[in-house]
Write a structure and sequence with these properties.
This protein has 1 helix and 10 strands; from the N terminus they run αββββββββββ. By secondary structure, it is mainly beta. The longest helix is centred in the N-terminal third of the chain and has 23 residues. The N and C termini lie far apart (about 95 Å).
Length: about 170
C-alpha cells in the first residue's frame, strides 16, 4: 500500500509543478480606461463622441512655405459662454528646425498662450448651447540656415484648455 500512496503522491506533485509552470507563462494585459462627465461643458468632434488624434497640416500651395488645417470642434455648454486657451505654445519641430509663426484660432478669433479667449455660443441645444466651431491652425515653414535642409517630418502637440464660465444669477 505504501508503494501505491507514494506513486499517487508523486503523480500529484508532478501535476502541481506543471500547474505552476503554466502559471509562469501567463500574459498580463492592461488597458487604462477613463470617462469624464461634466454637466457644464463637453468638447468633441462634430459626431459628439470622439476627439482628434494625430492630424496632418497641409501645405497651402506648391511652395510649401505655409501649412494649415481647419478642424470642426463641437462644444456643448450649459452656459452661453466658455473660455479656451493654449496650455502651451504650439511648437512643431523635426529636431533641427522648428516651424514658425504658429497661429491657433477658434472661428475668426486668435487664441493666445496665457490669455483665455472668451467665446459666446448662440445656438441653443438640449439643456444648454450646442455649437460647432472651426479650430484653425497655421504655421510657416522654417527657413534653411547653413547646410542642413528643411525636408522632413515636423511634429508637435496642440494642448488646449476649455473652461466653462459660471452663469451670472440675477
Amino acid at each position: 500500500m505504501n508503494f501505491k500512496v507514494a506513486l499517487i503522491a508523486l503523480g500529484l506533485a508532478g501535476a502541481l509543478v506543471g500547474t505552476v509552470q503554466a502559471a509562469d507563462n501567463t500574459v498580463s494585459k492592461k488597458i487604462t480606461l477613463t470617462a469624464q462627465i461634466n454637466d457644464a461643458l463637453f468638447v468633441s468632434k462634430p459626431d459628439g463622441s470622439t476627439w482628434y488624434g494625430t492630424e496632418a497640416l497641409e501645405a497651402t500651395d506648391y511652395t510649401q512655405k505655409k501649412f494649415s488645417k481647419t478642424l470642426p470642434v463641437r462644444v456643448w455648454s450649459s452656459n452661453d459662454e466658455f473660455n479656451v486657451s493654449l496650455a502651451q505654445p504650439l511648437k512643431m519641430s523635426n529636431g533641427t528646425y522648428e516651424m514658425t509663426n504658429a497661429v491657433v484660432g477658434l472661428d475668426e478669433q486668435t487664441i493666445n498662450y496665457g490669455a483665455p479667449l472668451s467665446v459666446t455660443q448662440t445656438v441653443a441645444g438640449v439643456g444648454g448651447y450646442d455649437q460647432i466651431h472651426n479650430l484653425n491652425i497655421s504655421v510657416d515653414a522654417p527657413v534653411k540656415t547653413g547646410s542642413a535642409g528643411t525636408n522632413g517630418s515636423y511634429s508637435g502637440d496642440l494642448v488646449m484648455i476649455f473652461e466653462p464660465v459660471a452663469s451670472v444669477e440675477e
